[in-house]
Amino acid sequence: MTTSSTTATRRKPRGAPSPAGIFLRGFVKHPVMVGSVIPSSNKLIRKMLSRVDWAETKLIVEYGPGVGTFCRPILEKLAPDAKLIAIDTNADFIDYLNATILDSRFVAVHGSAADVGTIVADHGHDHADFVLSGLPFSTLPPGVGDMIAAATRDVLRPGGAFLVYQFNPRVRDFLDRQFARIDHDMEWWNVPPAQLWWAWKD
Ligand SMILES: C[S@@+](CC[C@H](N)C(=O)[O-])C[C@H]1O[C@@H](n2cnc3c(N)ncnc32)[C@H](O)[C@@H]1O
Fold this sequence. Notes:
Elements: E1 7-9, H1 19-29, H2 31-34, H3 42-49, E2 59-63, H4 71-77, E3 83-88, H5 91-100, E4 101-103, E5 106-110, H6 116-122, E6 128-133, H7 144-155, E7 156-166, H8 171-176, E8 181-187, E9 194-200
Parallel strand pairs: 2-3, 2-6, 3-5, 6-7
Antiparallel strand pairs: 1-4, 7-9, 8-9
S-adenosylmethionine (SAM) binds near residues 39 and 63.
């Protein structure tokens, strides 16, 4: 599905930093929170999103969008009446996303994934159909990973899923404590190779 009528990506003004430059600057400022110096590859994005049921998706939430590597491919697939809420703790990334992705279906929110329930309700929704995470789970402060996994299970509708990509396999422990059915795959064409999980709310 093409959605060019709803999507407009503003051009980078001459002399403004590139997405890679903004991402690198974010990593240098907050290395533990950003967790990786290289944005996700196209192969990783395609594989991670391949199990989203787009026809049944009215709201997708993304945690840790960074400079929007996943946001644009999601908006290409998203129905015209659906929404994408992207949540990041880094205000520079949020300002960059809201300035460059001009799409009525998109909003970038400065906040923590742990507050997803409140953020979703504040935007007029009872639940999310799918939630995607690029968070560096294993380096989050103690307790935050479990809080985010529990808040995600609560916000998802039955039949929805938590989509997680990470380089460290220990993220599985956070998912196991909240979700009974979890699919796993790898994407080797990424730097570094990534673990992919789809944790289903049955
Ligand atoms: C590895 S980067 C994700 C990069 C991007 N999604 C991609 O595919 O290239 C991790 C992101 O998580 C954000 N982050 C860290 N802790 C967070 C939290 N508790 N809630 C929301 N975002 C968070 C960081 O600011 C950073 O943008």
